[in-house]
Automatic annotation (TrEMBL):
The keyword Phosphoprotein appears for this protein: no
Positions of the HTH gntR-type domain: 61-128
Coiled-coil region: none
Basic and acidic residues compositional bias, start-end: 1-12, 39-51
Listed name of the protein: GntR family transcriptional regulator
Signal peptide coordinates: none
Gene Ontology molecular function: DNA binding; DNA-binding transcription factor activity
Entry annotated with the keyword Transcription: yes
Native species: Streptomyces sp. R44
Alphabetical keyword list: DNA-binding, Transcription, Transcription regulation
Upper lineage: Bacteria, Bacillati, Actinomycetota, Actinomycetes, Kitasatosporales
PROSITE patterns xrefs: HTH_GNTR (PS50949)
Domain of life, source organism: Bacteria
Length: 263
């Protein structure tokens, strides 16, 4: 692994806000124009500024949420690289907002385990290991397999059929090789399945584990196109097994889906 080299590079120079392996700025991450205006194009808030009231407070949360989702997309897509340090002001300049919502979004990512705080410098993207992903897959299986087996016994076939558009969305993203959109569609499919259990706490825990499993590995390339396509095909196969109430196949597919997609 190249952990030491990555940390050395991060120490010698700040990382660009976004970019490919050659350092070219990425073009896929944007904050909508209407959101940029609510925070200002540059600079920090000061204590002398009036506290936003009414609708502006809602807009502030909207900006932070949009920045958070953009950062998550950049992480999954590999634009934010494991081991690299990114400063809030540099990322804010990239988004065209102030550093405040960027810091707030990065603090949220730190809670989720995607980044870690580097005092006086910014945030380092966490360097994940295959063992960590294997552990996440094991925990997800322990939670989701029993739930899906129970749902397979009780949910009528027509309800499962309603989820086919979500499975097709994962297949479409996989066919394009679009890892970021595939990650979103994959989470949406699993949330829809688990939501049939009617347990909001289960949904929150499962979604957090799922998101953590999508952060990139140390120096790992994006998943190959064939792997994404095969992973998406398992969603359709799972729906077929749930409709047929084929419990052994449901169990095997869910375990295969977790271990296969994290490999």
């Amino acid at each position: 692994m190249e952990q030491g080299a990555a940390r050395e590079r991060a120490t010698e120079r700040p990382s660009p806000p976004f970019g490919d392996a050659a350092g070219r700025p990425g073009a896929s991450v944007r904050v909508p124009e209407q959101a940029r205006g609510t925070e200002g194009a540059r600079g920090e808030h000061t204590h002398d500024e009036p506290v936003p009231r009414g609708p502006r407070t809602v807009q502030r949360h909207s900006v932070r949420g949009q920045v958070l989702e953009a950062l998550r997309t950049a992480l999954v897509g590999g634009e934010l690289r494991p081991g690299e340090v990114y400063s809030a002001p540099a990322l804010a300049e990239r988004f065209g907002v102030s550093a405040t919502p960027v810091r707030e979004a990065m603090q949220r990512l730190a809670v989720e385990g995607a980044v870690e705080v580097v005092p006086n410098r910014g945030f380092r993207v966490t360097e994940r290991t295959p063992r960590e992903l294997a552990e996440l897959a094991e925990v997800r299986a322990l939670i989701e397999v029993p739930v899906m087996l129970r749902l397979a016994r009780t949910i009528p076939a027509a309800r499962w059929a309603e989820l086919r558009p979500l499975a097709e969305a994962t297949a479409a993203a996989a066919a394009r090789g679009d890892r970021a959109h595939y990650a979103e569609a994959d989470r949406a499919f699993h949330r829809a399945v688990l939501s049939l259990a009617g347990n909001e706490q289960l949904l929150a825990v499962a979604d957090d584990l799922h998101r953590r499993s999508q952060w990139p590995l140390i120096s790992a390339p994006a998943l190959r196109h064939g792997v994404l396509v095969a992973d998406a095909a398992e969603h359709t196969a799972l729906l077929d097994a749930l409709i047929a109430q084929d419990l052994p196949v449901v169990q095997a597919l869910v375990r295969e889906h977790f271990t296969g997609s994290e490999a």
